[in-house]
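User: Continuing from earlier, I have the next pair ready.

Assistant: Great, send them over.

User: Here they are, in order.

Assistant: Folding the first of the pair now:
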Amino acid sequence: MRLIFIRHGDPDYQKDNLTEKGKREVALLTERICKWQNITAFYTSPMGRAKATGAPALEKTGRTATVLPWLQEFHYKTKYPKNFFLKNLRNQETMCWDFLPEVYYDDKKYFDKDKWVYSRMMKGGNIKKHFSEVCSGIDSLLEQYGYCRNKKGFYDVKNPKHNPNFEPKYSGAEKGGIGGTGNEKYQLVSEKNLDEDCTLVFFCHLGIMFTVIAHLTGLSPMQLWQSFYVAPTSVTILNTEERIKGQAAFRVERMGDTNHLTNGGEPISSSGYFTDVFHE
C-alpha cells in the first residue's frame, strides 16, 4: 500500500483559499499528478484550500475525491498554565503544534509516542481526544483496504500478495539473506512495484499530515510538528514494507518533495516556516 500526502498550495488563511502564488503552484502540481498511474482513490480535507489544491487535477483526470472530516487541519488550541515559567505566556492560547523551543524541550513527554498527550500543555486543550479521532479515522480507512492495525502498532494484511523481495526461498536463515529470505543483502528487485494495487492520495495540511504519519510510524507527532517542514504543494510518500507475509509497516519514502516547483521555475513557499527556504 502506498499513501501520498499533498499539502495545500500557498494559503490565504483568512479566505481559506489559495493565493495567486498558490494557484501557480497548483498548476504545476496538477501536471505532475496527471502523470501518475493506477491511483486507487483520492481523499481531501473539507477545508477550502485543500479542496482548491486538488480540484484541477481531479477535473483533468475525471476523478472525484472523498471528503474526510478528520483530515481537516489539526488546528486545536491549548493554553499555557497560569503558573507557566514564562510570565508573558501565562494563560495565553496557542496551537498545539506551535511551541517555542524553550517550551518544547522543557517536557520530555513530548518525545514519547504514548505520553505526549498526557503532558500538561496537551491536557489543557483536550488534545488526546482529537488525536484519537484522527487515529481512528485513518485506521478505519486503511481497514477498508485490508490493512488492520494490531496491538503492537503495525498492520496485519488480510490479503497479502507475493513479494519477491522478502518471500522465503529457503527454510532457514543459515541459507543466507535477511532473516532467511534468501536475498543478498539489500539488493531488491523491482517486481513489488508492479504488484502495488493500492495507492491513496490525500489533499490536506501540514499539521494533520504529520499527525497521521506519526501514528503510522510510531512517533510522537510533536517531533514532526516541531522539527520538520513541508512546503505548500509538496508531495510526501509512505509505503508499506511487507517483509513477512501478512505484516505491514509504514515507512516514509519521500518527504516534502517539490520537484514540480523547482522544475517549473516557481519559488518554494515558506508558509508555516519561521525562516527562509533554500532556493536552488
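And the other member of the pair:
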Amino acid sequence: MKIIGITGGVGSGKSRVLNEISNRCKCIILFADEIAKDLEKPGEKCYKDIVDLLGKEILDEDGRIVNKLMASKIYEDNSLLEKVNNIIHPAVRTYIIEEIAKARHEGLVDYFFIEAALLIECGYNEVVDEMWYIFAREDIRRKRLKESRGYTEEKIDSIMKSQLSENEFKTSSDILIDNSDSIEETMLQIAKVTKDSSFC
C-alpha cells in the first residue's frame, strides 16, 4: 500500500482529482478538514479543549461547535488560531496514522491518500511515501473559484496570500500533477507517475 499526500493551493482541483481517483483504483481517501470537523463534535477528542479555550458562546443550542462562531472568535484574537491549531492538528495526525495502520493490517487497498492544504506545514512528509502537488495555473484557479464558490477577486487574493507559494509547494513535494486542463489529461499524468494503467 502506497501512502500519498495530496496538497495544493485553493482552486487547484484536489477534490475533483481525488474523486476521479476513487473511481479508478482500490484506495482509501482521507480529507483532513473532514476529520477535524468530526473530532470537534461533542464527545470527540478535540471538543472539550476547544470549548475550554474559546468559551461556550461558540456552541449552538444543542451544544455543537458552530464553525462561524469559532472563526469569528479566532478573528478577534490571532493568538487563538495557533492554540486551536495545536489542539486540532495533532489529533488529526494521530487519527490518520491509526487509519494507515488499520489499512495496512487489512491489506485491502493499493493506495492511501491524505488530502489537506496544510500537509507540508504540518510535517506530513514524514508520514507519506510521496507528496503530490496538485498544480493549476492561477488564471484557471481564479476562474474555478468564481464559478464554483462565487468568490470575489478580493477573497481569492486573501486566501492565496495566506497559502504557500507555488515554489514552496514544488520544492516540498515529490511529484507535480498539472490539473490545469481536462481531468483525462490529469489522470494520464497520474498513470505515468504510478506506472498503473488503472488510472488511464
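Worth noting for the second one:
The two ends are 19 Å apart (CA to CA). The chain has a mean pLDDT of 95.
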